[in-house]
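Run log, item B.
One chain of 289 residues. Sequence copied directly from the ordering sheet:
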Amino acid sequence: MDKALELKISIDNGLSISRSEALQLLAQSELVKKLTRDWSDDPLFYVWRLIALSEIPFARHLEYTCRLIDRVFEKLATPFGFSLSGDEKYFLPCYNAMLVSAMCRLGQSRAENVLNGVEWITTYQPMERGLSVSIPKFNFDRFGGCFKRAPCYIGTAKSVFALFSYWEATGDAGVKEKLEQGKEYLLEHELVRRLSDGTPITRHIMDISFPESYHLNIVELIRFAGNASLLDDPRSQYAIRYLETKRRKSGWKTDFRYKSNGYTTFDDGRKPGDWVTYMINQALNGRSC
């Protein structure tokens, strides 16, 4: 088991670990070495590497992570949230939300740039069907449309995750109403199913994969449901049963490997993975992960 996961498990079990002890463990982690050995001045690289590091306890204290946070704030932050182009041209709700979530995990929930991203979600992101969104200079049809008769489920779900991460980090009651709307929207879809015919909402939504990528997957959704205490709701049961059918004797195996500059899977996919198995088990057992 990688030292970074050992550290996470210890912290989740309530063990007191100092920063120096944690950094010693991270220095021995092959995963951390892989995540910090290269650099590319590319917005997607920033996104995927930041998300990966945000999943590792104490990674916020690594020099590499600090440099990455500064670069994201410098290159991708705008007055309205995070954009791949640093302006309206490539603003996508899903990427804004993923960066908000990652920044909250990295201790940046009170940063002005993060608050701008949260404000965009609470102001504009629909958490129901039938609401149109049109903002001058923004092109939401670039990749198939973020807001049509129904909002893109990927962007909606990731925006709900972002609000929850922000609320957990700050306790800001100002996002609660929108967050509750979002929870209900996801539960109406049984987390993963179309309202019209019960089929999976997107091509990759039933994939077993970690950490998150652009393609929303069931691991993200069940993790959110566990952290948000939604697993006792009957509408979560379909996703739970599906994951139970995919479990092998020693856990879950990654069955999708996203490919993008900077993206790094935590498990190799050749056998049940330590990381994805731990994340799913923690979620299903109702413990934060």
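Observations after the first pass:
- The mean pLDDT is 93.
- The CA atoms of residues 1 and 274 lie 7 Å apart.
Flagged for discussion on Thursday.
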